[in-house]
Amino acid sequence: MSRTLELLESHVSERTQWHFVVLRDADHLALGECSDSGHPAKLVAELELLARHVRGRDLLADRAGLVDVLARRVGEQARPDAFVTATLMGGLEQLLIDHAAQAAGEPVWKWLGGSAPAPVRLYANINRVPGGRAPGDVAAAAMKAVAAGFSAVKCAPFDVADGDQPLAVTGLRRLRAIREAVGDEIELRVDCHERLPVEEVHRLLPTLEDLGIGWLEDAVAMDRTRDLRALRAATTIPLAGGELMFDAAEADTAVSEDLIDVLMPDVKHAGGMKRVLSIARSAPELAVSPHNPSGPVATAAAAHLFAVCPNATDLEYQFGEASWRSDLVGGLERTAEGRLHLDDRPGLGLALDTRHPSLRVLWSTTL
Predict the structure, then answer these.
(1) Which of 78, 259, 270, 284 is the most exposed place for a label (fewest CB within 10 A)?
(2) Class of domain 3-105+352-366
(3) What is the pLDDT at residue 25?
(4) Nearest to 235 by CA among 256, 252, 253, 212
(5) Could you tell me the residue ranges of all domains in the chain?
(6) Average pLDDT for residues 143-157, to the nearest whole number?
(7) Is domain 120-341 annotated with CATH 3.20.20.120?
């Protein structure tokens, strides 16, 4: 019986398109997500190369070998091409694990050797909530997340300028507005996206501490160890990073010198679920909070890891961007009171609605 491998794109907003790799095999669909690669045409080109290795092979028996094909491609390339291939590798590995767990009749958390997980705590990333970026608009978005049951909110206050005002001034106005709106009981996390000069970050630290910031993410890159040491010495705010990690070794210095508090590998960009698990296990003393400004497939893949990753704390959730995101997967992304609920459905536990109006096929081949 024929099998098909496809790349589907879901148009979410002007800022966001989700990309899914889909295996159709008999009556089954296996899914993986490779969103945010930055280059859909490159994803297609890599899939064309991969298809040569996939045709005629037993996907269950050859799962590791197929992932290794892309891992070698990552090693052969320089950025940004290597990043695109790593992200595709993440989606493919999710798909192959979903396929294998479905074949075994087990949810992924059980297939990985875990026990039934408790509902996974989420924090709301409000960066892509529709609307303006004025302080009042950002505060309103945070309030919506709190009303939906989230106890922690993250924003990127320094991403977008406001007229001629310096980014630092604009960002602090946004943060003050959020804190005033949500009160002191809600954890407020800040993603800097490395937008500010490190000297500017240092000048902001006293104010950020007064605002009770829960963590400072990507204030500086993890490989800038001199700047990271200075930042660590200057503040008690927990430091987070690692969203673009592909290998645990990339964080060796930051981890060994206690320069980071929270590692944030992404099941897409790290090359898949097992590589995220390897990164987490390489630093068992650190909190791991997977980076995940993603669609429902990557969200499910990351959530299943919590059953086998004792240092996983909470999971990023892209809040408020698409009211229909659960509809895209058959209503099976179940969130309530800031938590994601997994069940015992086989595989990732999702059923992609391939007729959803947001979807279009970018590439397809018969295997």
Answers:
(1) 78
(2) alpha beta
(3) 86
(4) 212
(5) 3-105+352-366, 120-341
(6) 98
(7) yes
pLDDT in tens, 339-364: 999 999 999 999 999 999 999 999 99
In angstroms, rounded to a whole number, what is the distance separating the alpha carbons of residues 198 and 168? 12
Q: How far is the C-alpha of 233 from the C-alpha of 152, rounded, in Å?
A: 25
CA–CA separation, 218 and 199 (whole Å): 14
Residue type, 163: G
What is the structure's pLDDT at 46?
96
Tell me: the pLDDT tens digits for 58-109?
A: 888 888 888 999 999 999 999 899 999 999 999 999 999 999 999 999 999 9
Q: Summarize the confidence of residues 17-34 as an average pLDDT.
A: 94
CA distances from 97 to 61, 93, 131, 237, 302 (A): 12, 6, 37, 37, 12
Amino acid at 302: A
Strands 17-25 and 3-11, by their bridges, are antiparallel
The Cα 292–Cα 124 span in angstroms is 10
10 closest CA partner among 344, 326, 366, 347: 326
Q: Mean pLDDT over all residues of the chain?
A: 96
